[in-house]
Amino acid sequence: MKTLIVGANGRVGTLLSGKMWAAHDFSPVALIRDSRQQTKFTALGLPSAVGDLEAGIADFLQGMDVVVFSAGSGGHTGPEKTIDVDQNAAVRLVKDCKKQGVRRFVMVSAIGADPTSESPRIQHYLRAKGVADGALRSSGLDYTILAPGTLLEEKGTGRIEAAEELGYHGYLPREDLADSIIESLRNYNCVGKTIEIVTGGKKIKDAIALAAGGDAQPAIL
After folding, report:
1. Residue-wise pLDDT tens for the chain (221 aa)?
2. Burial, 24: exposed, middle or buried (Cβ in 10 Å; 0-12, 13-18, 19+)?
3. Residues 101/67/27/19 CA torsion (nearest 10 deg)
């Protein structure tokens, strides 16, 4: 699967880029904002492209089978930037994928994402993600939305709990999120699903398959 990783220079995106490049069933391209970031991906042996997500990246979509959206404005920015990146840029990319014929789209969201969120802490973030998720669900694309709990800067355990509705929040190492993205792309039962993910006791492949409602099977493009 030729895969454009949007937000490849982020912590999840960097992990995902390396894992996809090492896998035999993916051909990843890292989308980055700054040419100075290319050195990292050159060292990995990974192709990269420089583009501004907020200005639109339709030119980079030709020939892609999959887009993975793992970009974000970051915790140090205010509500306006969150809306610009996590909401508006994501919605624009969904529309561009539809125009360019890119059928498969994996969105990295968050547990609690909701356009009407009343979260006292990160309301603007959860609302922005909720709007973007809603646009993807109504797009007609073969989408999967992965909604992790609070992300941790720890080595992955390789074990998670996953369900369309877990009913609780929890935590997840970023490495396990990257592996979950890969497994969701390998399992076509994940299409049309929103899957919440936290650290748990099941192997990632098995947990994703159960959450998707069937056994793991090869992706169909």
Report:
1. 999 999 999 999 999 999 999 998 999 999 998 899 999 999 888 999 999 999 999 999 999 999 999 998 765 667 888 999 999 999 999 999 999 999 999 999 999 999 999 988 889 999 999 999 999 999 999 999 999 999 999 999 999 999 999 999 999 999 999 999 999 999 999 999 999 999 999 999 999 999 999 654 444 44
2. exposed
3. -170
Instruction: Return the sign of the alpha-carbon dihedral for residues 65, 182, 11, 90.
Output: positive
Q: What distance in Å separates the CA atoms of residue 209 and residue 124, rounded to the nearest whole number? A: 32
CA 168 to chain centre: 21
> Which of 113, 118, 69, 65 has the alpha carbon at shortest distance from 92?
69
168 is catalytic: no
Contact present, 21 and 178 (Cβ < 8 Å)? no
Question: Residue with structure tokens 């993910």?
Answer: 197
Nearest Cα neighbor of 15 from 44, 38, 50, 42 is: 44
Q: Does domain 2-212 have CATH number 3.40.50.720?
A: yes
Catalytic residue among 125, 143, 171, 188: 125
